[in-house]
C-alpha cells in the first residue's frame, strides 16, 4: 500500500472510530487504540516508523503540544474553588497521593528505576473529559456524583499534564549530572517555561483583545503562535516547550475579558483530528511481545491501582465532606485514564529512548494497558454498581430549553413550578441574566458546542424544546440533540422555519421535530401573545370539568402546551397524535386576554 493510501486510511479510520464510539457510547480512545493494534502488530499494514521516517518525532511533538495547550485552556482557577471541597481535594490531595503511591508501587513491583516509576505515576493520574464524559452519560449517576466526576476530569486534565511535564523535565535535567546541577537545570527549565509561557499568553491575549487579527485569522494565528512559541522555547532551553505551551494555555484561560470560546472550539476540533490519528499511529508502533514482557507484575500493579490506590485517594479527599459510604464506593471505581496519558507517554518514551533510557520503552505498553483496562472494565461494571448502590439518576424527564427570552422563561417557570426539571440555554447574556433572576438553571453559550458537551449539566434532562428566534442555530441545536436525546424527544416551533427550510433544504429528520404546540404556532406568535399579556396557567381536569369543558370555556384563547397525567408524567401537545387529557390530569396552557384571538389548528400530542 502506498504512503498516500496509508495516510488516507488513517484519516478514514480515525473518523470511523470516533463515529463508532459515539454510537456505542464509549470513549473514542478505545476503538482508536484497537484499530491501531489491528493495523500495526496484528496485520502489519501500518509501520509508522517507515511511513513517517524522521518526521514521526516532530509530528508527535507538535501534536502533543497542541493537545496540552487545548487542555490547559479549560483550566480556570476559579472553577477549582467553585465546585466543592471534594473536587478541590481530588485534584490536589488526591492527585498527589495517586502520583506518589503509584510511583512507589511501580518501582517495587515492576523493578523500574525511580525516574521511570515517577514518570509513570505522573502519567496515570489523569482521567480527562474525553473519557469520563461518555461514561457519565452511559452510567447516569446522581447529580452530585456526576458533577464531581465531570469537574475532576476537566480540571485534572491540565494539572496532571503539568505534573507529568515537570517530572519529565526533572528526569532529563538529572541525567548524568550531580543532584545540585540537576536542580539548577530543572529550575532553569521551569523558569523559562513559566516566563515565556506567561509572556506569550499576555502578548497573544493583547493581540486578540484589541483585534489585531481579523476574525477569520484568529484561530490560525493562535495555532501558529503556539507552535512557534513551542519551538522557540525548545531552542532556548532543551525540552522546555511542552511546559511553556501548558503554562501559556493556563494563563490565557484565566485572563479576564478575553473571549476564547471560538478559539477553544477550533482547538478542540483540531485536537480531535490530531488525537484520532495520533492514537492509531502510536498503537500501531506497539508490539504484542512488549505486552507479554510486562507479565504478571503488570497485572498486580493494575489491580492495586484499581482496587487500592483510587479508593485511597477518594477516601482521603472525602475527609470533611458530606459524602456517604456508597458515594465514595462509586467514586472509587470510576477513574478511566485517557488522552493525556497515552499521547504524552508515547512522546516522552520516544525522547527518553533517544537519550539512552532503555526502560522508557516499557512505559507506553504499560500506560496503554492501564487505559484499556480502566475504560473497558469500568464502562461495563460502573452502571450495575451504581444501580446496586441506588445511585442512578431517575429517568431523564426534564427539559433543556434552547432560548432564555421572555416567552421561554415563562414556559420554563411554569414547568419548574409543576415539578419538572429545566435548564435554559442561550447565547444572549442579557437573557441568561434575567433567567437567573427568575431562579432558572441556565447555560450561557451554544448548547451544541464542544464546550457545552463538556460543561453543560444535563442531569435529569432528556428532552429538548427549541424556543429561540435564532434561525441559524435552531437546526444545529435540534440535530445535535437528536443524537443525544433521540429524535422523538426534540421539539421545535414549526411555522417560523418555513422559508428557512425551503431555502436551506434541511433534513427530513429535522423537519419532523418542528411539531411543537400546533401547526401554525410560531415563535413570533407566542412572543406576540405573551407581549400582549397572555399568561401560562395550569388548570386541573376533573370529572365535573372535562377537557371538552375546558375547550368550551377558553375557546381559541387557550393554547394548550403540556399536560401532566395522574402518574405525574408530562405530555407535550404536538401535531403528531391526538391528546385528550383525562380527569386527574393538569393542562398547562397559554391563556390569551384577547377574546378574538385567531383560530389555530387543534394541536395533538405525543
Automatic annotation (TrEMBL):
Its domain of life reads Bacteria
Q: Where is the Cation/H+ exchanger transmembrane domain?
A: 14-386
Coiled-coil annotation: which residues? Answer: none
Q: How does it sit in the membrane?
A: Multi-pass membrane protein
Q: Does the keyword Metal-binding apply?
A: no
Quote the protein name from its UniProt record.
Sodium:proton exchanger
Q: Mind telling me which Pfam families this protein's record contains? A: Na_H_Exchanger
Q: Name where it's found.
A: Cell membrane
